[in-house]
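Anyone up for a design puzzle?
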């Protein structure tokens, strides 16, 4: 039996099969049983060692250590999370955006905010919220291609993943970046005002030798995102624009930055330096985890 070992990257996973890109091409592989025993699930973006077999299934034998990984969207080793928000249709959900930026920051992934569908509604309110953060904010239009060059520039030489609700225009924007991709897109449901879950799988796409981007499905349930827990002590650091103020709170080590007297973060919100909407999201996320202890999180 001819055997041949290769290094590669998982670019897609469907129904227990993983598609691994190596220097020799793309190989359909199964994961070795040992991963299941160790409760490790191979992910798109994983760097792996595979064995290409002549007469049996190719196997993933080894998963290299991950530089970063996210549960939703399920991708490993990305540098950037491109969070696509539509100005309307579907309506923007700032709590979702801020949950995603916090999860990215916690995982050492750079969040980028793309405000899409600027042809359909006024973008000023969203812009006002996010220009007060430290994140890159790009205005875009999947329909006309506005903002495409800026997105291309930011993707260059990095591994990124697009994320955001169904229908915000993730696949449409990727098609603008490279029309050859021909990714499937679909109108949003006018009745429900949201997308139709057109993209079904997470796929890592090579734009050039050093630039990769993943298209991912819109979230089926926002509940699942709550699995990515950020403990209350850590949450403040996941809102980078708070950092300059955290140490100036009157009860610095104990300040939750939610209601406390003498809170420098709240003062900065009142002064219009930190956006109120971001602070509201912080409070909502804080309330979700405030009774949770470190040992309760696996
Ligand atoms: N008017 C307008 N429509 C847009 C824009 N961007 C995307 N669309 C439309 O929005 C609809 C949804 O776009 P998709 O690219 O399928 O959305 P998606 O985020 O990939 O959705 P899922 O794959 O379901 O997660 C399509 O009909 C697009 O043509 C835009 O900037 N302006
Ligand atoms: Mg899509
Ligand atoms: Zn405070």
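Challenge accepted. My sequence:
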């Amino acid at each position: 039996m001819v055997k041949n070992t290769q290094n590669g990257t998982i670019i897609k996973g469907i129904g227990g099969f993983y598609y691994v890109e190596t220097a020799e091409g793309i190989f359909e592989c199964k994961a070795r049983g040992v991963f299941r025993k160790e409760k490790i699930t191979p992910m798109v973006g994983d760097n792996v060692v595979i064995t290409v077999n002549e007469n049996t299934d190719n196997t993933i034998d080894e998963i290299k250590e991950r530089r970063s990984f996210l549960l939703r969207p399920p991708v490993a080793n990305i540098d950037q999370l491109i969070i696509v928000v539509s100005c309307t249709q579907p309506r923007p959900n700032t709590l979702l955006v801020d949950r995603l930026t916090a999860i990215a920051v916690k995982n050492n992934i750079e969040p980028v905010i793309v405000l899409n569908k600027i042809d359909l509604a006024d973008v000023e309110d969203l812009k006002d919220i996010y220009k007060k953060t430290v994140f890159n904010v790009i205005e875009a239009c999947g329909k006309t291609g506005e903002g495409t060059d800026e997105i291309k520039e930011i993707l260059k030489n990095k591994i990124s993943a697009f994320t955001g609700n169904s229908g915000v225009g993730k696949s449409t924007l990727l098609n603008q970046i490279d029309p050859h991709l021909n990714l499937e897109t679909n109108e949003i449901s006018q009745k429900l005002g949201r997308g139709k879950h057109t993209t079904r799988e997470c796929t890592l796409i090579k734009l050039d030798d050093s630039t990769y981007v993943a298209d991912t499905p819109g979230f089926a349930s926002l509940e699942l995102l709550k699995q990515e827990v950020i403990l209350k002590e850590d949450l403040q650091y996941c809102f980078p624009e708070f950092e300059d103020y955290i140490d100036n709170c009157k009860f610095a080590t104990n300040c939750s930055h939610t209601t406390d007297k003498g809170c420098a973060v709240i003062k900065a919100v009142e002064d219009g330096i930190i956006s109120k909407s971001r602070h509201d999201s912080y409070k909502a996320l804080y309330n979700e985890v405030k009774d949770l202890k470190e040992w309760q999180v696996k």
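A detail worth pointing out: The chain is about 25% helix and 25% strand.
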